[in-house]
Amino acid sequence: MNLLKLQILVLIEKYKKVTDVANELQLKQPTVTFHMKSLEEELGIPLYQNRSGRVWLSEAGKALYPYAQKMTALYSEAEKTLERFKRTGATVLRIGAEDIYSAALMRGLRDLGEKSPELQVEVRFAPEKELASLFAEGALDGMISEQNLAEKTGGSFDALFKDELVIICSRRHKWAELEVLPDQEIQQEKLVGYDVSSYLSSAALSWAGKRRLSLQYGTTVSSFAAAVQAVRLGIGAAFATRIAADGLEEQGKEIAVLPLPGTLPEKLGTMGLLHHGAEPPGLYLRELAAALKKK
């Protein structure tokens, strides 16, 4: 039972004439008739009936029809997908980010996937330094990074947004109701910290250095997701970025997001999408950057 025989059965149901089916498939009429008889012989049961100069499906043909229709439709869908691969190349997009930007990245990838369903995506969440090494080795096509890293690493950089360093804590934490968070409070708190190779770890250290503060960490975690869980459980407060903290206040109202001490927000560098610029990954990554800018 090959696909052509099933296509003929589906088209017989549509046109009721062998000549019309032959025209649709660009085959000679005897070829269509041969495949019709071949399928009947293969299955050992009549599938067609001739009445009044037209061809109808038998009861067995009618039973087979919905399966034949699904199989031919799937084949047509597969053909369209492969045509897209012929135009763009069979592309696997390998992209990395720290998990503080996981929500933003996934929303952008969702939009990209809707536009380019043929695209396969592999996402790696890891500390920035690890991602930078993978990018330099060519193991990643792109990564979300700070502009300073992009200047050191090289490649094409599409600026996305500027972020801001904040503190997150449980609504039950003593800081949750404070309008102004004093430096001394942060210095005395046993914070939830991050792996030393993470972007948040270096950002927090830089901020503390500017204000000549010494930070204490009671618990160190390897991901922002783990830090959020620790904060929810009341283990301690943690540094975060404004974009990473988006939505946390609304999630059961368990987490408060606080600005850092000072008259102005603690701005971080420009974040963007760093990529090699090679095609076709570069094309998809520029489309991803455009999607992320809308978020």
UniProtKB/TrEMBL annotation:
Keywords: DNA-binding, Transcription, Transcription regulation. Residues 1-58 form the HTH lysR-type domain. InterPro entries: LysR_HTH_N, LysR_subst-bd, WH-like_DNA-bd_sf, WH_DNA-bd_sf. CDD domains: PBP2_LTTR_substrate. PROSITE patterns: HTH_LYSR (PS50931). Belongs to the LysR transcriptional regulatory family. This is HTH lysR-type domain-containing protein. It comes from Paenibacillus yonginensis.
